[in-house]
């Protein structure tokens, strides 16, 4: 019985609070109809005012994206037809340094020593990040020797490179390396 009474009182207060009847417990200010009409007119005009700046922002974003893509294509052109000698250093600190030849040709990347291990020539992504930092990335899969994830960052003048390689040999074995470029040379463009 007490539970039923308490529940009725609680529900009554909730009903009173949620309805317009809550004005019974406090004084309600009267509003002038002309003031309400002005506010309604302001509210109707607000969405129109917001749409104009949004279009300007969209156009600015579109122009920035177009410029970013054009810059990325320019940088891809500078990277294309180049061959780099890089020095790989194990991130674990142990082990010996190794050298690798990286070639960028026909908008693809290949690695001489890793190619011998069964890693094919692959496409790569190239992005221009904040402050025009150029980054290329690729993933290679070999049926025999796992998966390689390469990420390289170019110097501002596109004459130097540094990056990381993560070689997932199998489910339990992983080898991570950092690399820096030792030299760069151009690759002759073939007639094909």
Care to describe what's here?
This protein is 36% helix and 34% strand. It has helices at residues 2-18, 33-79, 112-116; strands at residues 82-90, 98-105, 108-111, 122-123, 125-128, 134-142, 146-154, 161-168, 174-186. Strands 4-3-2-1-9-8-7-6-5 form a nine-stranded antiparallel sheet. The longest helix has 47 residues, at 33-79.
Predict the CATH topology of one domain: Porin
Q: Give the count of helical stretches.
A: 3
From the N-terminal CA to the C-terminal CA, the straight-line distance is 93 Å
Spatial arrangement of strands, main beta sheet = 4-3-2-1-9-8-7-6-5
The counted number of beta strands is 9
Helix fraction by DSSP (H/I, runs of at least 4): 25-40%
In one word, what is the shape?
A: globular
**Approximately what portion of the residues adopt beta-strand conformation?**
25-35%
The CATH architecture of one domain is Beta Barrel
Order of helix and strand elements from N to C terminus = HHEEEHEEEEEE
On the 0 to 100 scale, the average pLDDT is 80
CATH C-level category of one domain: Mainly Beta
Supply Rg. 32 Å
Low-pLDDT runs of 5+ residues are: 20-29
Q: Mind describing the biggest β-sheet? A: 9 strands, antiparallel
The chain-level structural class is alpha+beta
